[in-house]
Amino acid sequence: MSFSGGKIYFMKKDILSLSEEELGNEAFLKAQPGYRAKQIYDRLHTGRVTDFDEMTQLPLRIRQQLKDGYVIPTVKVYRELVSKSDGTVKYAFELPDGNIIESVLTQYRHGMSLCVSTQVGCKMGCVFCASGKDGLVRNLNPSEILGQVYKAEQLTSQTVQSVVLMGIGEPLDNYVNVTKFLELYGKHRSLRNVSLSTCGLIPKIYELAELRLGLTLCISLHASNDKARSEIMPINRVYSIHQLISAAKYYRERTSRRITFEYA
Fold first, then answer.
1. Are 216 and 198 spatial neighbours (Cβ–Cβ below 8 Å)?
2. Which of 166, 173, 169 is nearest to 215 (CA)?
3. Which of 35, 131, 157, 207 is most buried (most C-beta within 10 Å)?
4. Mean pLDDT of 166-174
5. 10 pLDDT band (50/70/90 cuts)?
């Protein structure tokens, strides 16, 4: 079973959220040759199969075990809006449980950039953001974050060159699943082309710094003093601007990556 936000929404195990090592440790594969886990992992993340029957290099018995115990989560296009001015595409993606999230695909000179969601809803309560008006519904699994990238690439037949975790949700409020997504995504691509935007969950910034993943940290600041920021961003009532700047400096020192400050 797969758990997120305290709710069960997959009755089978989410195989797309497993690393290659974790996949190799699954009970049904322990009696198989060591290369089986790599075969399955590559078909999922390189071949992008969405049905275990497409794994034709596997024996029928293993394919049946996969079908019996696992699911390959996919996102579906619920709505697509294209900007007439610059071709930017906003996707409303439907998740396996029927919830809707958003991703935004933008074309730059260096290639395509995709802004992805990390939660269904948000509990941070920033007054300028529509994502949290109904509160937090649940966290996204790693596969559902990754699925936004895979679906955008399928729809455009192009490779996403950079990813921005700045869609619906606070990425550091879904820390475990977001860092797992980064592990899966970073297996075949550079995390230096990934940016993570946070309103300022200080303890998680310090944790993220220790991982030294090489990604860019973006601080959603939006005010120059605690009084003004606390009025529009409730997180500032818990962690002050001074604490936020200290955490940002620590991240810079530990990772040698510059910080981006967002200010509207």
1. no
2. 166
3. 131
4. 98
5. low
pLDDT at 5 over 70: no
Q: Which residues pair with 216 in a beta bridge?
A: 195
Residue 128 binned pLDDT confidence (cut-offs 50, 70, 90) = very high
Residues 42, 48: Cα–Cα separation, whole Å? 8
Q: If you average pLDDT over residues 210-220, what whole number do you get?
A: 97
Q: Where is 4: in which H helix or E strand?
A: strand 2-4
**Residue 196 reports pLDDT greater than 60:** yes
Q: What is the dihedral of CA 112, 50, 215, 23, to 10 degrees?
A: -160
DSSP 158-225: S-EEEEEE-SSS-GGGGHHHHHHHHHHHTTTS-GGGEEEEES--HHHHHHHHHH---PEEEEE---SS
**DSSP H/E element including 62:** helix 60-69
Kindly report the pTM of this predicted structure: 0.94
CA end-to-end span of the chain: 41
Burial class (CB in 10 A: 0-12, 13-18, 19+), 220: buried
